[in-house]
Design brief:
By secondary structure, the chain is mainly alpha-helical. The chain has helices spanning 3-27, 33-53, 68-88, 112-136, 146-151; strands at 97-101, 107-111. Strand 1 (97-101) and strand 2 form a beta hairpin.
């Protein structure tokens, strides 16, 4: 499997995991407002990084105030946006550098590959925080292990 195909697979996993977290938060009746805030941040950051890669203006704040319905819409929309992006992406673009400004207004430059890797790790980090919050609140967290998704045939 080449790097591009690996990243496509990781983003398929990411989309599935975000959906699982959303479902658990929804089932808990928003058992933890902070969990919902973290999910909204994950989704906003994923969109923000895609917009940076595409050299588009930032459309959402880094820490938006979103309700469950807005998060659900974002999950669905991001699946489509990332699918479209990966549909036109070639391996040669992965090493290309993009320039952008972070939320502090500082200018940076990173390869597309590094940005995509960051998106995946950032989202996984915050999903872990959500799992801890849900468990502390007496709720079973979403089971989002990558190997589980593979074993169950939830991602290819």
């Amino acid at each position: 499997m080449d790097l591009l195909e690996h990243l496509r697979r990781q983003f398929a996993y990411d989309a599935w995991a975000n959906g699982e977290v959303l479902a658990v938060i929804k089932a808990s009746g928003s058992g933890s407002p902070l969990a919902l805030k973290l999910l909204a941040h994950i989704l906003s950051a994923e969109r923000l990084w895609l917009e940076r890669i595409m050299q588009q203006p930032q459309s959402l704040s880094v820490w938006p105030e979103c309700d469950l319905d807005q998060c659900e819409a974002q999950v669905a929309e991001l699946v489509q946006l990332w699918r479209e992006y990966f549909g036109q992406l070639s391996s040669s673009v992965l090493s290309k550098k993009i320039t952008y400004k972070n939320s502090k207004g500082e200018s940076w430059s990173s390869t597309v590959q590094d940005v995509l890797t960051h998106v995946l790790l950032h989202s996984a980090y915050h999903r872990g925080q959500i799992a801890s919050l849900m468990r502390a609140g007496g709720y079973a967290p979403a089971y989002t292990d990558f190997i589980h998704a593979v074993r169950q045939g939830l991602i290819e």
